[in-house]
Amino acid sequence: MGSVQIVTTILAAAITAVAVWLAVRAVLQMVAVIRLGQPAPDRFGDKAARARTMLVETAGHTRMLKWGVVGAAHWFVMVGFVVLSLLVLEAYFEVVTPTGGLPIIGHWTVFGLVTEIITVLGLVGILVLMVIRLRNRPTRPGGRSRFTGSTMWQGYFVEWIVLLVLIFGLLIRGFKVATDHFEYPLWATPVSHAVGAALPDWSDGASVAALIKIAISMTWLIVISLNVTMGVAWHRFLAFPNIFFKREPAKPAGSGLGALRPMTSQGKPLDFEEADPEKDQFGVAHVEQFSWKGLLDFSTCTECGRCQSQCPAWNTGKPLSPKLLVLSLRDHAYAKAPYLLAGGGKDLTGEEKATQAQLAHLDVLSLAEGDKPLIGDAESGGVIDPDVLWSCTTCGACVEQCPVDIEHVDHIVDMRRYQVLIESSFPSEAGVMLRNLENKGNPWGAPQNTREDWTKGLDFEVPRVGEVDDFEYLFWVGCAGAFEDRAKKTTRAVATLLNEAGVKFAILGEGETCSGDPARRIGNEFVFQMLAQQNVETLNEAFEGREKAKRKIVATCPHCFNTLGNEYGQLGGEFEVVHHTQLLAHLVATGKLTPVQPVDGGVTYHDPCYLGRHNRIFAAPREVLGDAIAGDLTEMPRNSERSFCCGAGGARMWMEEKIGKRINVDRVEEAMATGAKTVAVGCPFCSTMLNDGVNGKGAGEQVEVIDVASVLLRSVKPEQPQGGRETAPIGG
Questions:
Q1: Would you call 426 helix, strand, or coil by DSSP?
Q2: How many other CB atoms are there within 10 angstroms of residue 394's CB atom?
Q3: Sign of dihedral through CA atoms 464, 465, 466, 468?
Q4: Which pLDDT score is estimated for 68?
Q5: Percent residues over pLDDT 90 in the chain
Q6: First and final CA of the chain: distance in angstroms?
Q7: Which of 351-355, 365-369, 622-626 has the highest mean predicted lDDT (pLDDT)?
Q8: CA-to-CA distance for 509 and 504, rounded, in angstroms?
Q9: Would you state the pLDDT for residue 143?
């Protein structure tokens, strides 16, 4: 060992020791913060499925690759980080001797070939990512960036570290080539040989380059260890457990889609018959009341902004960004941690849990963080502004796009639950909807005895459950389908088509009440439970004696479809629920319905969030429309899982949109730009919102918004009276 190698070895050991010590301290700090969260026992089941999903999503990059070039570039960088960590390890042998290498595999030609390929592709990948970040920088002209609000220096720092590590890896090899100590042939490592041809014959070059490579790598580790909220770096470690512990690992997309998590206290579902607000947690009032998985979510955020770029609220000038919401919760959790770890915090009655002695050593900033309200405006110093909380449509675009499976919607609804149930703080106009649900069983407050009025004038009898036992499907009409004038046309169209196809179905009539979706998503779990339990009891009685496979329900509203199929199981209601477009597609495919006259004028289709993104039903409505128009749809740029919300979900249907551009107008402009004369929908909420948007643009005579079922009915029975264009106002 020469004098240079003595120095390089000592320096490498010193900086590594500091970095490792700081990293261990940082990991312990992060674990302590995450452990502050509430229990989540449901996150440990089906470990095989969890492990399989984690490997598929990480190694396969299934979520990232939806972004094409970005996903491919990130995959090469990720693989480079994992595999080329062996070359960082090898650098510790090279600081000791310039001819050093990894034991055993370090001399295999295949190892040299693989690492050469990964190095080159990693260089290309990181350069692509650097260009993309620069082209999308928040300060660029032309509008909001997905990186707006991200800590940009951290992104640049990480990218430059990766680039420099890869460059110095090639320089080490180049010096070995220049000094004729390189173990791999030219054909396996052509780039390394090319670099070596340009370098001088410096015997200590490999050791010096190895020291610099180690110093760069350890500087990265030191910096991220001193910044535990640096998600752009920590996600490469935290993504694995965050994906492993996702809510439903078997789901094909974000596990936070579809059903909402039930309200829990200490990790157990809340029983409202026994619950006591002074003893049980109602929603989330403080950051430590999120589950430990929620705190892991916040810690894992990469600040990539994919959620932000797809969010309908953010894209129409509202203050909600799913990314910034998560970052605010993350920063608050870590800033509040010293106070919490010292024993501080508020009990369920709002009293301080810690003694003065426990808090005496804390600095004023930690104590101030402990006093911040979780929800509050700028004047009150709240972490999350109320306008942010109530702008969410629960469309799920953020969950769909998140590459590390953060469950934004669950966290937003948990905060809403506390605001509604304990603080009685929510947009005033939603109060009317909640009172109607409690008193009338529907959001519009329509009389229950008018639930069957949509059947009047049909040329066939609509059977009721109880009057007939021999039915294959229970037709869940829904509140909109029973009371809202546009949706009633869809209800009549579906009933007519089912009758035409010879499908035996029955309705509950006045026995049906609201599914509870708007109550649950605004945060009023109590009203949801009341409505849902009543419906489960009614449905179980209607299907008494039938196995689950024969307890079939068809629903026209995706919100009802989602609630009945995905959430009623939490209350003992196990049913096979299909959306009407699925059933209609089956009836056409089996020849029970035959389109005879193509609908012309061009048709585009708007994917409802709760049908498409939340439940992955993209093909069925398109198949129905394809048969009805005897051709191809004119797709909007944002379609399928990237469909843009109509603005009605998350109980926003009953809240006035006062900030920014109206979401439905944004979507209508996109639909009209296709040139299609018909905008087909599969949801009564979407129908209302898009019709209002079309009329607001003064295009009611040029563009028609109707349900998929109505389009099919016009093709199957062209002589069927359609009752005019679907532009009637809300009924009830």
A1: coil
A2: 28
A3: positive
A4: 85
A5: 82
A6: 89
A7: 622-626
A8: 16
A9: 62
Tokens, residue 66: 């939806």
Neighbours of 336 (CB within 10 A): 26
Q: How far lies 655's CA from each of 426, 430, 522, 632, in Å? A: 10, 6, 10, 36
DSSP E strands: which ranges in 492-594? Answer: 505-506, 552-555, 576-579
Q: Determine contact, residues 460/500, Cβ cutoff 8 Å.
A: no
620 neighbors 581 (Cβ within 8 angstroms): yes
Q: Are strands 603-605 and 678-681 parallel, antiparallel or unpaired?
A: parallel
Rounded to an integer, what distance in angstroms lies between the CA atom of residue 554 and that of residue 585?
A: 13
E strand intervals along 294-433: none
Task: Residue 332: name the closest of 308, 365, 305 by CA.
Answer: 365
Q: What secondary structure letter does DSSP report for 269?
A: E
State pTM to two decimals: 0.93
pLDDT 10s digits, 366-393: 899 999 999 999 999 999 999 999 999 9
Cβ(583)–Cβ(706) below 8 Å = no
Q: In what order do the strands lie in the sheet containing 704-707?
A: 603-605, 678-681, 704-707
Q: How confident is the model at residue 728 (pLDDT cuts 50, 70, 90)?
A: very low
C-alpha pair distances (Å), 68 with each of 81, 123, 233, 305? 20, 18, 22, 16
**Residues 638, 400: Cα–Cα separation, whole Å:** 14
- The secondary structure of residue 567, as a DSSP letter, is I
Mean pLDDT for 467-490 is: 93
Q: What is the DSSP letter of 564?
A: I
**Burial of residue 176 (number of CB atoms within 10 Å: 0-12, 13-18, 19+):** buried
pLDDT tens digit string along 170-225? 999 999 999 999 999 999 999 999 999 999 999 999 999 999 999 999 999 999 99
Place of tokens 């006035």: 656
594 Rama class: left (phi>0) / alpha (psi -120 to 50) / beta? beta
What is the rounded radius of gyration, in angstroms, for the C-alpha atoms of the chain? Answer: 30
Closest to 218 (Cα-Cα) out of 359, 5, 20: 20
Place of tokens 């990766």: 162
Q: Which two tokens stand for residue 322?
A: 């799913």
C-alpha–C-alpha distance, residues 522 and 612, integer Å: 21
Extract the tokens encoding 722. 């359609």
Answer for the pair 177, 200: CB distance below 8 angstroms, yes or no: no
With a CB cutoff of 8 Å and minimum separation 6, the contacts of 473 are 498, 503, 504, 505, 506, 552, 553, 554, 578, 583
How many other CB atoms sit within 10 Å of the CB of residue 508? 20
